[in-house]
Amino acid sequence: MALTAVVRIPTRALLRPWARLRDSALGWMEPVGGVEVSTQRFGSQRVLVEPASAAGVAVMTFKNPPVNSLSLELLTELVINLEKLENDKTFRGVVLTSDCPGIFSAGLDLTEICGRNPAHYAEYWKAVQEMWLRLYLSNLMLVAAINGACPAGGCLMSLTCDYRVMADNPKYAIGLNETLLGIVAPFWFKDTLVNTIGHRASERALQLGLLFPPTEALQVGMVDRLVPEDQVQSTALSVLAQWMAIPDHARQLTKNMMRKPTADGLLKKRDEDIQNFVSFISRDSIQKSLQMYLAKLRQKKG
Ligand SMILES: CCCCCCCC/C=C\C/C=C/C(=O)SCCNC(=O)CCNC(=O)[C@H](O)C(C)(C)COP(=O)(O)OP(=O)(O)OC[C@H]1O[C@@H](n2cnc3c(N)ncnc32)[C@H](O)[C@@H]1OP(=O)(O)O
């Protein structure tokens, strides 16, 4: 159902975005003359985008059951919806979360990198790169509301955000566990982790393919805050409200200064990275490892 209501917020708040928080804290919510803010819900089959009650904020929910694996379709829809939000200048912050109970995202869709042909691997890897580049360099404030398991590519996606709130449930774990599958986290996955938790902790985590339960993830700095499961999204929204108090231009330039050198590492050699991925993933030994891992996942139920 599309909501087409339009809320007006005062132009002064748009010119001084950090004033919005203060104004709304003072109880200012009356629609007055100014710039139109669309409250239209949009999205696609696997990605739902809903404006939050706070002006300038949207919640992007992934709904690719059963485990929100990052299929080619989900990656494509994610990038399209992110671009829509970025082009609509009324949005300043986005919460990323999941509609799959107990799972934020199971990471890359193993059926996309197992038993396919080189052209498919290349197309898929380009989409993975695109997702990372768009999220990592987004001008929007991104907060991950991690409401479930968050391995590998799911962890990478959350690491592109500016802040991570995770459900404090010991059943859930987060980390780059690629080595457990017999594969290697690419250098830009590694760089994203190093930028978040530092070199030594990353080296250990990557070599061992560690999946951290919430308390350990908080200790190592992989997530920023733990809250009860039913408060993950509301906490993410209140974190965004605090970040919104910072003038956009200063925050965006700072984010870019911190992240661009890392992103440039991939931007300078995207094609080479695709070729490396295709030749690595096409190896018989790697395909065997992936098949065994998938079979184990599937057997778990039987
Ligand atoms: C020399 C250098 C060259 C560089 C080359 C670079 C190469 C690097 C390549 C890639 C990097 C890879 C990144 C990744 O993200 S790989 C994916 C890693 N993901 C995981 O390990 C998670 C696997 N899944 C789980 O652990 C669990 O499913 C869970 C904890 C997420 C959820 O558990 P549960 O609720 O118990 O669900 P099930 O396990 O029963 O799963 C349900 C259903 O979903 C299927 N499934 C699970 N995960 C995936 C997945 N990632 N892709 C596809 N399908 C998945 C699972 O098989 C079940 O299917 P069903 O039996 O048919 O119902």
TrEMBL record:
Catalytic class of the enzyme: isomerase
Record-given protein name: Enoyl-CoA delta isomerase 1, mitochondrial
Keyword Aminoacyl-tRNA synthetase among UniProt keywords: no
GO cellular component entries: mitochondrial matrix
EC assignment: 5.3.3.8
Predominant location: mitochondrion
GO biological process: fatty acid beta-oxidation
Family recorded in the similarity comment: Belongs to the enoyl-CoA hydratase/isomerase family.
Localization of this protein: Mitochondrion matrix
UniProt entry keywords in alphabetical sequence: Acetylation, Fatty acid metabolism, Isomerase, Lipid metabolism, Mitochondrion, Transit peptide
Pfam families assigned to the protein according to its UniProt record, in alphabetical order: ECH_1 (PF00378)
One Gene Ontology MF term: delta(3)-delta(2)-enoyl-CoA isomerase activity
Originating organism: Hipposideros armiger (Great Himalayan leaf-nosed bat)
Keyword Lipid metabolism included in the entry's annotation: yes
Oligomeric and partner information: Homotrimer.
SUPFAM superfamilies: ClpP/crotonase
Pathway(s) per entry: Lipid metabolism; fatty acid beta-oxidation
Function: Key enzyme of fatty acid beta-oxidation. Able to isomerize both 3-cis (3Z) and 3-trans (3E) double bonds into the 2-trans (2E) form in a range of enoyl-CoA species, with a preference for (3Z)-enoyl-CoAs over (3E)-enoyl-CoAs. The catalytic efficiency of this enzyme is not affected by the fatty acyl chain length.
Taxonomic lineage: Eukaryota, Metazoa, Chordata, Craniata, Vertebrata
Alphabetical list of InterPro entries matching this protein: ClpP/crotonase-like_dom_sf (IPR029045), Enoyl-CoA_hyd/isom_CS (IPR018376), Enoyl-CoA_hydra/iso (IPR001753)
UniProt catalytic activity: (3Z)-dodecenoyl-CoA = (2E)-dodecenoyl-CoA; a (3E)-enoyl-CoA = a 4-saturated (2E)-enoyl-CoA; (3Z)-hexenoyl-CoA = (2E)-hexenoyl-CoA; (3Z)-decenoyl-CoA = (2E)-decenoyl-CoA
